């Protein structure tokens, strides 16, 4: 896991046979801005050489926080550090806990129950059709609306029966995964959009096959799975999403990819102060249960304590 303090961009222009090639690459460092620039200059020189040799490479790297940034570390402001745990502020302003070896998994419920949501839209459409039929005095239109309503209602009922309680379904998946793993222990938290898992029995490398096994068993969010592999870390959001906490404005500048220019810092800091006031009334997750009979790893317990404190997991506050 690498989350640098300093960033720079290297630019090189090469002209040959009347054509100019401009290549840009980022550099990073925990030492100082000059070291970051040296890394950028080295990376851009290497990229130019490969492009001139015929290799098809992008001439410019996108400035993104982490998702999709192959070969580029997490690009977020470092807010604090606790050993090798790093707290960062992401591109929309929320705080995130980053750890190289304590296993978190993100499970998105919205994707699982979407058929029921679709049926609700269908049922609403049917009601509108019936109203239209009555309003226009067209019995045929009303009948068609009624038929659509009946079908939508049946599908919605089937969806509730088929998909059931998301926590119960997730616990079933975890218990099946743990059936032949008696040394495992997993805490299950509820989040606004799903669930978060935290392995308590030992630490893991993101490339560990057992990590991939857990992700597949619980149907972890594919974007989160990809991030873990690319950034060689695990991650959990520990403060509310701003719009869920009532923030009307986006962080400034937008997007808030780090670093930002000095002239933007006053606006950014003012936004953060307002966000922190609103965030104080919300939790990011709450504990639902703990599954498995394994012992507790000391480092996992330390990270769990920090996570629960920063998320306000035991506060009873509404989730955001």
Break the fold down into its secondary structure elements and pairings.
Elements: E1 6-16, E2 19-29, H1 33-52, E3 77-82, E4 85-89, E5 95-99, E6 104-108, H2 114-136, H3 139-163, H4 166-178, E7 186-191, E8 194-199, H5 209-218, H6 222-231, E9 234-237, H7 265-279, E10 286-291, H8 298-311
Antiparallel strand pairs: 1-2, 3-4, 4-5, 5-9, 6-8, 7-8, 7-10
Helix pairs in contact: 2-3, 4-5
Low-confidence blocks of residues: 111-118, 158-162
Quickly give the structural class: alpha+beta
Number of strands: 10
Rg computed from alpha carbons, rounded to a whole number of angstroms = 25 Å
The helicity comes to: 40-55%
Mean pLDDT over all positions: 88
Strand order of the largest sheet: 3-4-5-9
Q: Name the shape in a single word.
A: globular
Helical region count? 8
Give the end-to-end Cα distance, rounded to a whole number of Å: 27 Å
Largest sheet: 4 strands, antiparallel
The ordered string of helix (H) and strand (E) elements is EEHEEEEHHHEEHHEHEH
Tell me the β content. Answer: 15-25%
How many domains would you count in the coordinates? 3
Describe the overall structure.
- This protein has 320 residues and is an alpha+beta fold.
- The chain has helices at residues 33-52, 114-136, 139-163, 166-178, 209-218, 222-231, 265-279, 298-311; strands at residues 6-16, 19-29, 77-82, 85-89, 95-99, 104-108, 186-191, 194-199, 234-237, 286-291.
- It has three domains: 6-61, no CATH class; 80-110 and 166-311, no CATH class; 114-163.
């Amino acid at each position: 896991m690498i989350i640098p303090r300093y960033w720079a961009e290297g630019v090189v222009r090469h002209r040959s046979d009347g054509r100019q090639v401009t290549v840009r690459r980022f550099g990073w460092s925990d030492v100082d801005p000059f070291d970051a620039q040296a890394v950028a200059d080295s990376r851009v020189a290497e990229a130019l050489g490969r492009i001139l040799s015929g290799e098809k490479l992008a001439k410019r790297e996108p400035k993104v926080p982490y998702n999709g940034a192959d070969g580029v570390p997490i690009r977020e402001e470092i807010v604090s550090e606790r050993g090798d745990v790093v707290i960062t502020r992401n591109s929309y302003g929320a705080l995130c806990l980053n750890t190289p070896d304590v296993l978190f998994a993100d499970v998105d419920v919205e994707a699982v129950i979407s058929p029921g949501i679709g049926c609700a839209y269908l049922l609403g459409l049917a009601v509108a059709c019936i109203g239209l039929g009555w309003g226009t005095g067209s019995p045929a239109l009303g009948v068609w609306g009624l038929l659509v309503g009946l079908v939508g209602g049946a599908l919605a009922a089937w969806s509730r029966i088929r998909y059931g309680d998301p926590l119960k379904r997730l616990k079933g998946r975890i218990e099946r995964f743990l059936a032949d793993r008696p040394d495992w222990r997993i805490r299950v938290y509820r989040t606004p959009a799903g669930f978060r898992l935290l392995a308590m029995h030992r630490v893991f490398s993101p490339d560990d096959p057992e990590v991939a096994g857990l992700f597949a068993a619980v149907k972890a969010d594919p974007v989160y799975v990809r991030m873990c592999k690319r950034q060689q870390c695990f991650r959990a959001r520990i403060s509310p999403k701003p719009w869920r906490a009532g923030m009307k404005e986006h962080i400034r500048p937008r997007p808030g990819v780090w670093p930002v220019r000095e002239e933007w810092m006053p606006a950014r800091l003012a936004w953060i102060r307002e966000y922190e006031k609103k965030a104080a009334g919300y939790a990011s997750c709450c504990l639902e249960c703990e599954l498995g009979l394994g012992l507790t790893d000391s480092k996992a317990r330390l990270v769990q304590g920090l996570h629960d404190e920063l998320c306000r997991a035991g506060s009873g506050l509404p989730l955001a």
